[in-house]
């Protein structure tokens, strides 16, 4: 655990990493508590208030259905972040599990798992999801999370497998084996904790990727379904009013850019901490 | 070298077969079958659906379907598109050139400007320019391509009226227009999609080139080059960059999936008549054979790209195939 803690600490000392971490924290807090303070994004207060430019009553303006854009961006953030955190949690766990099994057991199990990963990596994640989601009438959010999570572990498993292959040759693992340590002790006390650094990097960068992916799916009408607000869905809605009410699409896009950038800045700092040579 | 090549080739074939099997399982594992959504959008009767189901072989067991699909594939037959009523292969072939033009242009920009900036960053590691370029490129990387495309289309295409914001050709162009004015027209339509896709993707190239260059910069022969009294420019570009170019070749393989996924959104936003827009439309019309064909083509491209990259790398750097 100390290894992962050191990595976090070193990323925090990096100015860009700290900026990213702080922005991510602010966005998360806003997504958690913002919807309580703002008007209900599903409410349509006044038909005459449609497509208002940003102003005092509506800081981000209103969309063509007279809904407050700020309220929708904030509650869309709650959905986008939940999907991202849960899906990444799932894919990192799956990737770590497969990588550990593959790297530690080796042999036929390793060969089989890695051939499957090779094949899966040949199909861009977007296309896998398009194919599965296209049959769905309305995708439940839980199914979306499971699907995005289940299609994101392939590269992580390869990464963890590589780490395991490296670590298991180290003196302390050899020593533990000679001392007769049980298999699960070696895996959970020695291999996993020492592979946590790269895993943390993959997870943080994965959050940015998933936010973009979910926004893209929602933009194609396959992700979060209306009337639930989502950043990608709002941009889709704004397509027809881009000329008359551009703010309805610009603000959710900016929210994506800021959040993903923050996650990537932090992820980048973590990577520099894991592998200082690339700093 | 020969046995290494053979092994790598077998690996590529296995990867493609696994991808094919995965795609097939995925398509059949989803709730309902490809035709169950048809009646939701169109006035199709139950009998018609049953007839279609028989025509597409969906009433057969999954194993039989897979065999039929694979044998069709071996004969260059990917089935018939539900929406267009034409063979999937000819639709894909029709749309491929536009995507290659778009993707090729983006690649060209990335592998000139992106590499140049990456080297500059490595040489100025930790300085203000390096930090700014990192932040800027990461900001581009954080942009959803469809959003950036919409904003650019609105600003440059509609507000400023500088460039066309949709399509590949001007429909009002006279029929007897010469080759040059036609090419110029396509070029003008190409600018916005290419700029969009380049902005969101150039960070990957820059980061990769920067890291590769940093590896080279710490090698002893760089000190030797300087000690010999070579100009700093020559040290950087002739001694440094030439050797930092090898690792970047691997990017070619990593690049394809990013480009293809990006083109789905960018082509949709700019109505660019390529594969990406075709795939996105196939999603909208639940055109399964077409979606399956497009995914399979992409998988084949990715596997082939990876293979070519590895072979090129091995040819240039003997350590890879001997190590």
Q: Which topology of chain A does CATH recognise?
A: MetI-like fold
Radius of gyration of chain B: 24 Å
- Tally of structural domains of chain A: 1
Given the helix and strand composition of chain A, which structural class is it?
A: mainly alpha
- First-residue to last-residue Cα separation of chain A: 23 Å
Low-confidence stretches of chain B: none
Give the biggest beta sheet of chain A.
none
- CATH domain fold name of chain B: MetI-like fold
Integer tally of domains of chain B: 1
Question: What percentage of amino acids of chain A are in beta strands?
Answer: under 5%
- Full CATH superfamily name of chain A: MetI-like
Extended strand count of chain A: 0
* Overall mean confidence score, pLDDT of chain B: 86
Largest contact between chains: A-B, 53 and 65 residues
Spell the H/E element sequence of chain B: HHHHHHHHHHHHHH
Amino-to-carboxy terminus distance of chain B: 11 Å
